[in-house]
Amino acid sequence: MKQLLNFIPLVFFFVFLTMYDVFVGVQALMIAATVCFLLILILYRKVDKVELISYLMIMVFGGFTLYMRDPNIIKWKVTIINFLFAMALLVSQFIFKKNLLQKMLGKEIQLDINIWNKLNLLWVFFFILCGTFSLGATYYTTDNFFWIFKVFILPGASLLLSLISGIYIYKNMNKDTDNK
């Protein structure tokens, strides 16, 4: 349910972008993100840090996009979020010696730290790749391609990696229980 609420603003953005233009789409994105953010707060009485950061970035980059009348500003949000996620995963693993994926999922899933670290690095690589492709798409493709990339390709790639991660976790959970 929570993931669906986080996806709804993107749908509103794409619909209004297609019907009108990027600036109306950004306004729809900001309104829908605010409504969904408040719904998450009311329903769950808690907002994750990732959701808060994502919401604040929508508001900041959306606000600057509308103020400056420059669609590239909202495009940068995608790039920056991907690089921030990669950096957070890297810093937590190598500097603070804590694996954020393990911290988020470790209560429900018991895995060897080496498995968590490999999974963490896979996601780091994924976020860097997405940020790099997003940067390239911002400046070297058409606006139409960028929005398709942002709305369909990136979420599809994230879903695919989530499925692959789930299979990897499941495979390694079975090995862990087989060894005991």
From TrEMBL:
Keyword list, A-Z: Cell inner membrane, Cell membrane, Membrane, Transmembrane, Transmembrane helix
Gene Ontology, cellular component aspect: plasma membrane
Membrane-related topology note: Multi-pass membrane protein
InterPro entries: YciB (IPR006008)
A Pfam family that the UniProt record links to this protein: IspA
HAMAP family: YciB (MF_00189)
Name of the protein in its database record: Inner membrane-spanning protein YciB
Protein species of origin: Gilliamella intestini
High-level lineage: Bacteria, Pseudomonadati, Pseudomonadota, Gammaproteobacteria, Orbales
